[in-house]
Design goal:
The model has no long low-confidence stretch (mean pLDDT 90). The longest helix has 10 residues, at 15-24. The chain has one domain. The chain has two helices and five strands. It has 103 residues and is an alpha+beta fold.
Amino acid sequence: MRGAGFQVEARDVSDDELQTVAMQSGVPGQLESCHTAQVGGYVVEGHVPAEDVRRLLRERPAVIGIAVPGMPAGSPGMESGRPQPYQVIAFAQGGRTSVFAQH
């Protein structure tokens, strides 16, 4: 994200703390991953491409945030190995989800 021009403040926490942060941020359990960020009033969970974060901030949809569950090969930070298709999922109040982007 730094390489894409975002200012980043990283905090290393235990897995339990990360799960607590994700839960308190409104990330549905099935969308949890290994990174949780707060960007422009939204939650960004997992290996979300920078262009999707920029789109989120530009379009300002009525969602809590976006997520890439797991760590799919080919997503940012997971470039080694054979890339696999993956989706960026938007999540809103009440647990509603929708596909935000496909890669």
